Amino acid sequence: MGPHAPPPGRVHSFQACPPVSALPQTSDAPHPLQILQEVWGYPDFRGPQGDIVEHVIDGGDALVLMPTGGGKSLCYQVPAIARQRAGRGVTVVVSPLIALMHDQVGALHEAGVDAAFLNSTLDWNETLDVERRMARAEITLLYAAPERVTTPRFLELLDGLHARGKLSLFAIDEAHCVSQWGHDFRPEYRALTVLHERFASVPRIALTATADALTRADIVERLQLQQARQFVSSFDRPNIQYTIVEKKDATTQLLRFIEREHEDESGVVYCQSRKRVEEVAQALVDAGINALPYHAGLDAAVRQKHQNRFLRDEDAIVMVATIAFGMGIDKPDVRFVAHLDMPKNIEGYYQETGRGGRDGLPAHAWMAYGLQDVVNQRRMIDESPAGEDFKQVMRGKLDALLALAEATDCRRVRLLGYFGEESSPCGNCDNCLNPPQVWDGTDAARKLLSTIYRVQQQSGISFGAGHIMDILRGKSTEKTKQYGHERISTFGIGAEFSEPQLRGVLRQLIATGALNVDAQAFNTLQLTDGSRAVLRGEVPVLLRESVSQPATRGSSRRDKRSGGASKPASAAAAALDATGHKRFEALKAWRTEVAKEHNLPAYVIFHDATLAAIAQRAPATLDDLQGISGIGEKKLAAYGTEVLRVCGDAAR
Ligand code: ADP
Ligand code: ZN
Question: Which of 32, 385, 448, 471 has the fewest CB atoms inside 10 Å of its own CB, making it the most exposed?
Fold first, then answer.
């Protein structure tokens, strides 16, 4: 058994508490809403959940596109329970994330659902035990990775179930992994077509939080979901505030951002390289922030340990990571996601930023973006071994992200526009909140382009950005003398522009394809077909005025700590009075203990919002706990008495 596998007895032989059902049970087809209330204690389905659940319970295939935090899991978990109760047997959940299966299954156990996983963290006896229980259809939800699901041994197990009418449903999570256009392509997903071919009568539900039109079409084709009904939710995450700043000294900018806006809160910081991850994590630690690195170069055990701390520590952790981190992480209270390097495309950006604010409370998506990002991303595409068609698609996707980064209008309108949704300015992005001063860089752009043209004409070779800017600004250097570039007619005609201004113009020209950077030739600048329109003044070049950094609010974090000021109350508990707060804090401390004992993240026991609702109600009897969102029957039976005791003690 792996070091993080659950203690035996917990996961594999869950003992259901005596039923405490207060809800009327209809014989073989319980209403899905009843299941939601009984098992999760949630009063209602959210958005399209109800429709999806009904469709799947009735045996329809479904493709669900719903943003992170939208509540995808319930879309297959409720049908799995309903169908199991109707005698249809086991639901198989295909998930790529072995490291997270334990917590997912643990959360289902907490809610009183028979669930298990099959993966490499189990030893042989444990595996046999799960297989036996599965064969007897005692398990409602069985989680496994695609490479396991497609083994002959597993397929035979499914054959056996199927023959007895006990193979209920396939749920394919993170379905975008099947597509090479998605940002998490996993070839093993391709083999999942066997499920449809071998068990044509078993319904399938595929779910993803990503999907531009191209990826969506690919999912349908690859997983043969042509018959499936598509449920497409809005991709808007209204509680996420988008901010994209011009990159100067990224690490310092990040530090200021965290100190100003997110002291003592959980967050994720994405960097492109392992080396940067290490450097940035260290810089944050040096500044007194609880930061941990995560990247594929770390030992698997270290990675798992860091992930567990991020998920389980009550102290807020900032995870500094490459994109190897994050898929399937369902921590609800991540308050910010920061990008120090630009992702490859909008799907990646959307997916990564989407990991913030799953609990629906305000969260921040913050990115620092600069010329080097544009150059790097373009180069990575150029140098990739992929075919030209593929590169063309990748370039198109990068361009869309660059346009978002350069935008001076609402970020959300552009983001949603990319996913085919129309919207109006959001009021919750940097450009809406502080409409940027825009300056017209068209003249500067034309002067830059004609300088590049003349230099090329005169010298027969191309030069880099620094030299071109020197010429335009009339700065005499070794190089301008050596090449006779001081005689060029544009020498000094752009003296009124600052270097940062010109850099901004160059960045936008490169971002929009009006200029090319040749990575193979010392990052020299070359004109493109797109240059002409700008030279002729047909395409305006609008840039945001560089704003200076606002000053840091208050004192540094260390001063605050030594001053003994208490932590800001969690957002969920904002409305509580003083004794309510006492109860809330006592409940949190109790939850920490339970979570430790069960080897699960705290939010799996109860969300903050549920604890806050309990604290608010000041319950005296078990009846008082009825109807609080997040307390299902199992949790009421398992924890109700303890919760009453903790609340009572706190009030004394
Ligand atoms: P996704 O997988 O789409 O990112 P999850 O399934 O993890 O989202 O759900 C996000 C959060 O919302 C979870 O904490 C979940 O318990 C909660 N949630 C989902 N559906 C509902 C609902 N109908 N009512 C209340 N909370 C819900
Ligand atoms: Zn906006």
Answer: 385
171 lies in some domain: yes
203 and 74 co-located in one domain: yes
In 568-619, beta strands by DSSP E: none
C-beta of 45 in contact with ligand 1 (< 6 A) = yes
Q: Report yes or no: 246 and 504 within 8 Å, Cβ to Cβ.
A: yes
Task: Enter the DSSP assignment of 639.
Answer: H
pLDDT at 392: 85
Contact predicate 331/608, CB 8 Å: no
Question: pLDDT band for position 2 (50/70/90)?
Answer: very low
- Residues 140, 154 share a domain: yes
Q: Which ligand is nearest to the CA of 39?
A: 1
For residue 161, tell me if it sits in a domain.
yes
pLDDT in tens, 376-387: 888 889 888 988
Give exposure, 150-172, as e/b (b: 16+ Cβ within 10 Å).
Answer: beeebbebbeebbeeebbbbbbb
Beta strands 336-339 and 363-369 are parallel
Would you tell me how many other CB atoms lie within 10 Å of the CB of residue 594? Answer: 17
What pLDDT is recorded for position 394?
Answer: 87
pLDDT digits 0-9 by tens, 456-488: 999 888 999 999 999 999 999 999 999 999 999
Residue 95: CB within 6 Å of ligand 1?
no
Enumerate residues 6+ apart whose C-beta is below 8 A from 496: none
| 184-243 pLDDT, tens digit each | 889 999 999 999 999 999 999 999 987 677 888 999 999 999 999 999 988 899 999 999
Identify which of 39, 46, 605, 631 to mutate to test ligand 1's pocket (most ligand atoms within 8 A of the CB): 46
Pocket flag, ligand 1, residue 360 (CB < 6 Å): no
71 lines ligand 1 (CB under 6 A): yes
- Looking at the CA of 414, which ligand is closest? 2
Q: pLDDT at residue 26 above 50?
A: no
How far is ligand 1, taken at its centre, from the CA of residue 302, in Å?
29
* 3-class secondary structure per residue, 365-409: EEEEECHHHHHHHHHHHHHCCCCHHHHHHHHHHHHHHHHHHHCCC
What mean pLDDT comes out for the span 643-648?
Answer: 95
- Tell me: do 269 and 365 sit in the same domain: yes
CATH number at residue 418: 3.40.50.300
Task: Decide: 114 in ligand 1 pocket, CB within 6 A.
Answer: no
Pocket test for ligand 1, best of 39, 358, 361 (most atoms within 8 A of CB): 358
Question: Do 534 and 585 lie in a common domain?
Answer: no
Tell me the pLDDT tens digit for each residue of 505-552. 988 888 888 898 887 777 789 999 989 999 998 888 888 776 443 333
By CB atoms closer than 10 A (0-12, 13-18, 19+), residue 383 is: exposed
Number of domains in the chain: 4
Residues 152 and 201 in one domain: yes
- Do residue 169 and residue 33 come from a single domain? yes
Domain span at 358: 240-369+407-435
